[in-house]
Amino acid sequence: MTTFELKLPEELRLSIFRRVSTQDALKLAIVCRTFRTSAEQVLYETISNVQYMNRLYRTLVVRPDLASLVKSIDLCPLMLESPVPAVVDHGCSVGMTDNDYRFDLPITENRIAGLILRALPALESLKISILYLEDRRLYTEEGYDDLAWQSAHPIIAVLGPAYHPSNGNHTTLLSQIPGLKNLKDLTYCGARFPSSLGSLPNLENVHLSRDCFFMDDPKQDASVLDPDLTRSKYRYLESCLKQYICLKTLTIDILEQERVTRHGDVSTLLDRLRDVQGHIEMMNLIVVQPHEGLHYLNLVLPVPSMTAFSGLKKLSMPYEWIEKVDNETIVMTVFSKVFPQTLEVLELQIPQEHTCAWLLEFANQRSKSNFIHLREFRLYCSEMRGVGYEKFRYDSRYATQVKDIGKTGIHVEVSYHPDEYKPEWDNEDYDPISKSVVDELRSLSVSYQAG
């Protein structure tokens, strides 16, 4: 196949490759020499869904220029996996040892993932998603096997035994790994959240995603309501986050069937963040919808105050978790006790019918020189609970209130869960209110003619 050259501005070339599929990008790189560099930059700056860890590692070792392009990577360690053929069997000679582990012997893909981290000097974003293999060693007749669980520690699985938190030198070792030196964003899901990574000097943004254990004991039964357990809840998270000295953004995904589902749990959880409250700029408490609905929100007590988060700029949480105030007897002292004055963006998930009226009263406090930094309200709608997207966009009762809030100088954005999307919403002429009336008249007409 003959290749050809095509002169285009680099920014335009990168824009093209970010809009095409991976397969199309590879084809363009083959037939056009000019596109080859751009294709490599786009394909390697973000790496996800790695199926063959050994092949990726071989490429990064042979092509260090590609390794230097990687800004983001997703790794999926397998707990208690069996060894696989060594990397050397795939054409890449690895003349090194990792503490007590020789890499000329069969190793696990997890340890290959550790080698990949060592090969990425410019890495800024890391996602660790723990996958579990069926292994009876985790369980005994008496239940959970703590020793087996400790041996399945994800940091150990990826980096090796020397990086166990019990090793007093593990923080120094972590800071020496090229792929962790410049790390800014960490997403962690599927296992116990590690305190050891908190020592990384540039780590600012942490996302505790689905199935992340941040309670004292991952085997604790969430269905058991014990006052002593409630008082001790999330102490592990509290002690863990103390180590995250540069933390600015904290995101926590919350599932109904998991552990933040009891009376007062949200307040308890936020209280456990007391040592990092002062320097967190963004707090996202995200409800991940279960199929059966969000009924547990009826049980969760509202959060009385967020003012301890003195540097908070963006807050995202369910509307029902905020201590609402009576619009008829509202006073500024009530609002100031609920939110910090530094707030710039307030995102309310699962809004109710009276949400807009409440927000409008909140926005009016700006006339009293309060919340002067507030510039945006976001309403994240769901059909499973609360008022739907169509009501806020098309129903005059709510749409008028949204416009009134906008008159105070605050931008209002109404969005929806992807599962709720309707193609009709892309049509500017779509009017569900008129459509429902027309449909009703048509049904009456058919009934009349049939009669």
TrEMBL record:
UniProt domain F-box: residue ranges: 2-60
Pfam families on file: F-box-like
Protein name: F-box domain-containing protein
Organism domain of life: Eukaryota
InterPro entries for the chain: F-box-like_dom_sf, F-box_dom
Species this chain originates from: Didymosphaeria variabile
Coiled coil: none
Lineage: Eukaryota, Fungi, Dikarya, Ascomycota, Pezizomycotina
PROSITE patterns in the cross-refs: FBOX
